[in-house]
Design brief:
The structure holds two protein chains of two kinds. Chain A is α+β, with helices and mostly antiparallel strands. Chain A is built from six helices and eight strands. The chains are: A alpha+beta, B mainly alpha.
Chain lengths: 201, 288
């Protein structure tokens, strides 16, 4: 707990400050090479999908921003062939879901969409970018937290438990290549709505 | 978009804390002068213990127990994502079986926090409103309100203890020190009364701050506002368990506790109307 943290706590403005903290997208691009390592060293292949998770703001300006992001993605669809979809899950969080067989395109498009939110001043509403991988029946995700500016692994097994062994392995192998969140209490799970589904489904 | 800083609220909070601090300085000076400062380390231990056990005590007294993801998946999901927005480790979640819709947060730090809701709250609110209330509790955790209020009320508690001991042993001190003990007791009484109102004021300001935090976390000030309206309406309909106790307390006051200046000064929470007004301001700010 830093000095500024303590001062803000005294003023009771810590919650407001953190909730509106700007997004940190600096280390997002580490994913492009991580896709290679995931396949070469661990045998995990891309599920050809990635998603951007954000929480809405009850304002016209925000709705306009989401429209704008969609317009830009539509234009990009022709260029890179990245198909997109926008939907709200049952918890009221919103997703931009991308589909592309080229991981490089997924990473760039995620960054592009995120940047659009940041430009419009809504970087603080970005929660995470989720990149999906699979190996036989195993599922694994690398989740980038825009609040913390770091990645963490999430490996859901059936019956809503985390495969901690696999998460540990992913962290050990990819740490260094990706900026990995050190404090494990910030490794929030992102459970899917449907069993065996992706977090964004 | 940029949110305006609520300087008015911050100013009042700082002023209140400054007054408390000044009052406590005088109090400590009097205690030292009258050789009564022996109480301080003793009480320090007591308050430290309180800080460590208050969370368990609060949960126990509400009959609440922590619940797993399997039991309340919805609440868990919601808290998970709200904590992500607030940049908090996910706190424990507890549920108390009570018809009165209510929620509170405990824990001295954000790593040991528990957010507790009643079954009445879960039944009464829809999911948007529930996220507003949960965000309010997470804002309390993030603002370290348990810690701040415990520290703020430390010397007030000491003063209260001295007054009480004064009543017990009052009149017994006929030795040379009798006079100065009397001074210490009188000073404690004054400090206790004044600090009581200052602490209550501070508590109300921190409620406003947590409301604000909740609105910024959910991005939807209206969800908490609507929850407050619903809870406030229901509170009057649901028979209160402590009704008898409260009417007895009311007998001590010339005017009933509700909805007047004295009631306001005594209460730990601002009135629902005032809170909703503030949230309305935030909602307006969103569209500017």
């Amino acid at each position: 707990m830093g000095l500024f943290d303590s001062i803000r706590a005294v003023f009771g403005s810590n919650a407001a400050t953190e909730a509106t903290k700007e997004a940190d997208a600096d280390d997002l691009f580490g994913m492009s090479t991580a896709y290679v390592t995931m396949e070469a060293d661990l045998g995990f292949q891309s599920v050809d999908q990635a998603a951007l998770c954000f929480s809405g703001v009850d304002s016209t300006d925000f709705a306009d921003t989401v429209d704008e992001v969609q317009a830009i993605l539509r234009a990009g669809e022709e260029e890179t062939g990245t198909i997109f979809d926008v939907h709200e899950d049952s918890h009221g969080w919103e997703w931009v879901i991308l589909q592309d067989t080229d991981p490089e395109d997924l990473v760039t498009t995620i960054h592009f969409a995120a940047d659009q939110f940041i430009q419009r001043g809504y970087g603080s509403r970005l929660l995470s970018a989720v990149f999906g991988f699979s190996r036989d029946s195993d599922r694994a995700y690398w989740i980038y937290s825009f609040k913390r500016g770091a990645y963490y692994p999430f490996a859901p097994s059936t019956n809503n438990e985390r495969n901690q062994q696999l998460e540990f392995k992913l962290e050990s192998v990819l740490n260094g290549e990706l900026a990995v969140e050190e404090d494990e209490s910030y490794w929030y799970p992102m459970w899917p709505d449907t069993p065996r589904g992706h977090p964004w489904e | 978009m940029e949110w305006n800083t609520d300087w008015g609220l911050r100013g009042r909070m700082v002023l209140t804390m400054f007054l408390l601090f000044a009052l406590y300085l005088v109090f400590v000076a009097v205690l030292v002068q009258t050789n009564s400062a022996v109480f301080l380390p003793l009480m320090g231990v007591f308050v430290l213990a309180q800080l460590f056990f208050s969370d368990k005590l609060a949960l126990y007294s509400m009959g609440a127990s922590t619940v797993t993801e399997q039991e309340y998946p919805e609440v868990h999901r919601m808290v998970e994502r709200l904590s992500q927005q607030a940049d908090l480790p996910k706190p424990e979640i507890a549920v108390a079986d009570s018809r009165v819709p209510n929620a509170f947060a405990t824990g001295r730090s954000q790593d040991s926090a528990t957010v507790c809701v009643t079954t009445g709250l879960l039944r009464t609110l829809d999911s948007d409103e529930l996220s507003g209330v949960l965000a309010h509790e997470l804002a309390h955790v993030k603002n370290r309100d348990v810690m701040v209020m415990t520290i703020a009320s430390f010397l007030s508690t000491v003063a209260f203890m001295i007054v009480r001991m004064g009543f017990w042993f009052g009149g017994g001190g006929q030795d040379r020190q009798g006079g100065s003990v009397l001074v210490a007791i009188l000073a404690s009484l004054v400090v206790w009364v004044i600090s009581f109102f200052l602490i209550r004021a501070l508590s109300r300001y921190r409620e406003y701050a947590a409301d604000r935090g909740a609105a910024l976390i959910t991005g939807q000030p209206s969800s908490l506002a609507s929850a407050l309206m619903k809870i406030d309406g229901r509170m009057d309909n649901v028979p209160r368990e402590d009704l008898r106790e409260q009417s007895e307390m009311n007998a001590f006051f010339i005017v009933p506790l509700k909805s007047d200046l004295i009631g306001k000064l005594f209460s730990t929470h601002p009135s629902t109307d005032n809170r909703i007004d503030r949230l309305r301001d935030l909602e307006r700010e969103l569209e500017r």
